[in-house]
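User: Can you predict the 3D structure for this chain?
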Amino acid sequence: MAGVSSDLIWLLVKRNNRYLVKRNGNSNASIQFSTEPNNLYNLNTFKYSGLANKKTVSIAAAGEGLSVVLGTTKTKKTNKPADSINRSVLKRDFRRMAKAVVNQVADNGYRPDLKNAALARLTAVHKSLRVAKAGHSKKSPKSTRKAIRN
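Assistant: Here is the predicted structure, written as structure tokens:
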């Protein structure tokens, strides 16, 4: 869909698509979420839409440790979906990951309007990874006290 404008695509997919999740009834005041890829806030709006926009940003957990994958869409490869996402694995501490996200999203002029949303998504993903990692190695305080006394 390289020759079609983003506005036209949004008009076609905003009310009915595979990823749309409606909550609180079917009225116009209901909240509409979206489970589409590359949608940072999971809201069904044009600004955050991964389907309608040519330039999108995604942040997800990587396979190992506290690493995070930052994905940006390549605008020149829209006809090749498998090659259209540029993925960067961020493995350092949180401040350096945040700086890398700001550099790639806002400072390079890619999508400066998504800077706060990308940082919020990075914070949420990193926090969930920290909780998951801490949950596996955490021991109960009673067992460690008994081991110290003996």
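The beta strands are 20-23, 31-34, 57-61, 68-73, 85-90. The longest strand covers residues 68-73.
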